[in-house]
From TrEMBL:
It comes from Marichromatium bheemlicum. CDD domains: AAA (cd00009). InterPro entries: AAA+_ATPase (IPR003593), AAA_22 (IPR049945), ExeA_AAA_ATPase_DNA-bind (IPR052026), P-loop_NTPase (IPR027417), Peptidoglycan-bd-like (IPR002477), PGBD-like_sf (IPR036365), PGBDSf (IPR036366). Coiled coil: none annotated. This is AAA family ATPase.
């Protein structure tokens, strides 16, 4: 219902563990690295734990998407099994042939051992993954340990990954299971997101689904984190319900009131901590009040606000600037018309756009919208023609200016009757700071390239980064999104003043296109009158 309303390609807050939406926080990146490294070793256990909804299964699915060469996997999703049932399930998952009438433990272990030896002779490795492992009975867990005794003189034949909730760690601490605990060579525990990670997670999922603007205000994000306690699954549930609520209410974004209503529908405030006293609550209220009174309008976080005009700021324009506000207002056009003009800067001439949000129509041309809040200095760095949101007390509805070039201290605005040149500092004062620009999608892949994406998209990213000598990355065809590629990407992001999250998102791809000079890209600096 709501995706097309907000310009999304699909609902992006499903609770299904879709690796395309994997958000690699520092801890999730560490967990994925341990799984990839653990699959290349021989024998032993890797333990991945975390509270319900922290992303264990999603990390596992991402690992399976980039499974190392020569690894054969048996995945057990239902651990409510006896020792014999578990062995049958493992044999079936590995494709081991055994007599259906002979299912004694000894015969099952013999059949599995023969299969593992065959894999070893072929230079392949066997990996057993048990999800929800906290539900394993101690006797069954001990049976899994005994399977790791299958070995040659030099190699263990079976590697085991245990994924489970925090009580799995408590179970392994029992004296009766100390032999299992001693064989764990890597332990990773996923904790809930902090507030910064929650915000980054929400924005990441929106970007993957094609979001071209900020859909959640800062107070809404704060409330989502508080309600969800930073658990990704609960974040997804609340965000999905909040977007639906904003759609039903015909709102352009999700504010704190919409989130609060959605939270009540889902069952109150699970994240509310009743131990908070009056003093912390007063501090929070005071900070929010200051944000409303002092800085809220400037950051565009708090939804509708009093428009910024020279008169409201006490500004007096000198005689050399006389008439500039009127000339700019005359250049303001509705968003669909502004988008058509912006497309022409990309060499795309259309008489009109289809139904729906303008940004939802540009994907057909291999383009994507990127919105933000900033200044002309921000747009100089991005180096793309842009639509500038101009809010004013004299305008009945918000409109857009089409910024087609920046030259020296002048901003060049596209109009039907020709280009209007205004002083950049004057435009910065009148402009709300909100912008929408177009950028060119990679020839392969989507708006975000990271672990779990198709090999051709990862290969393209590697080739582009390898064109920058300072990164020291070879363009050889390495398998998947390896650590060398991630480190090179993070170095590039830091060099461009971007968050080094190891994911090639819209701002990273825009900066990369600027550095490697991709063809067919409209640039502000290339404008000629």
């Amino acid at each position: 219902m709501y995706p097309s309303y907000f310009g999304l390609f699909e609902p992006c807050f499903s609770i299904a563990p879709d690796p395309r939406y994997l958000f690699l926080s520092a801890q999730h990146r560490e967990a994925l690295a341990h799984l990839v490294h653990g699959a290349s070793e021989q024998g032993g256990f890797v333990l991945l734990t975390g509270e319900v909804g922290t992303g264990k299964t999603t990390v596992c699915r991402a690992f399976l998407e980039q499974l190392p060469e020569g690894v054969e996997v048996a995945l057990i999703l239902n651990p409510y099994l006896t020792a014999r049932e578990l062995l049958v399930a493992v044999c079936e998952a590995f494709g081991v042939a055994f007599d259906g009438q002979e299912r004694s433990l000894r015969r099952l272990i013999d059949a599995l051992g023969h299969h593992l030896l065959t894999l070893h002779a072929q230079g392949r490795r066997a990996l057993l993954i048990v999800d929800e492992a906290q539900n394993l009975r101690p006797r069954v867990l001990e049976q899994i340990r005994l399977l790791t005794n299958l070995e040659t003189n030099t190699h263990k034949l079976l590697r085991v990954f245990l994924l489970g909730q925090p009580e799995l760690r408590q179970m392994l601490a029992r004296p009766a299971l100390r032999q299992v605990d001693q064989r764990i060579t890597a332990r990773v525990h996923l904790r809930p997101f902090d507030r910064t990670e929650t915000t980054a997670y929400i924005r990441h999922r929106l970007a993957v689904a094609g979001c071209d603007r900020a859909l959640f205000t800062a107070p809404a994000l704060w409330r989502i984190h508080r309600w969800s306690r930073g658990l990704p699954r609960l974040i997804n549930v609340l965000c999905d319900r909040s977007l639906l609520g904003a759609y039903v209410g015909h709102r352009p974004w999700v504010d704190a009131r919409v989130v609060a209503h959605a939270a009540r529908e889902l069952g109150g405030e699970p994240g509310h901590d009743r131990s908070y006293g009056a003093r912390p609550a007063l501090i929070v209220t005071t900070v929010l009040a200051l944000a409303l009174g002092i800085g809220g309008w400037g950051m565009g976080w708090l939804g509708p606000r009093t428009p910024f005009t020279p008169s409201s700021a006490g500004l007096s324009l000198g005689s050399s600037l006389a008439g500039t506000p009127e000339r700019l207002r005359a250049a303001v056009v509705p968003e669909p018309e502004a988008m058509l003009r912006l497309l022409r800067r990309w060499g795309i001439d259309r008489d009109g756009l289809g139904e729906g949000a303008p940004c939802g129509q540009v994907g057909a041309f291999g383009l994507r919208c990127e919105s933000g809040q900033g200044s002309l200095a921000t747009l100089r760095r991005l180096d793309r023609p842009a639509l500038l949101r101009l809010d004013g007390a004299e305008t009945t509805t918000p409109g857009y200016l089409v910024l087609t070039g920046l030259t020296g201290r002048q901003a060049l605005i596209d109009r039907p009757e020709g280009v209007l040149a205004v002083q950049a500092e004057v435009l910065d004062r009148l402009w709300s700071g909100r912008f929408v620009l177009l950028w060119k999608l990679p020839p392969v892949g989507g708006a975000v390239i990271g672990p779990g994406d198709p090999p051709e998209a990862i290969r393209w990213l590697r080739q582009q980064l390898a064109k920058l000598p300072e990164l020291g990355l070879s363009d050889h065809d390495a398998p998947g999104f390896d650590p060398m590629l991630r480190k090179a990407l993070e170095r590039f992001q830091r060099s461009q003043g971007l968050a080094a999250d190891g994911l090639a998102g819209p701002r990273t791809l825009i900066a990369l296109h600027n550095r490697v000079d991709r063809p067919g890209v409209a640039r502000l600096r290339e404008w000629r009158p």
